[in-house]
Amino acid sequence: MSTILEPLTSVEESVARLPAEVPTVPIYRLSVEQYHRMAEVGILLDGDPLELLEGWLVPKMTKNPPHESTIRLLYRHLHPLMPDDWTIDLQSPIELADSEPEPDLSIVRFTEDAYANRHPTAEAIGLVIEVAHTTLAIDRGIKRRVYAAAGIGEYWIANLMEEIIEVYTQPNPSAGGATYSQRHDYTPGQSVPLVLGGKTLGEIAVADVLP
Question: What is the pLDDT of residues 28-57, one digit of tens each?
Answer without folding.
Answer: 889 999 988 998 898 988 888 899 999 999
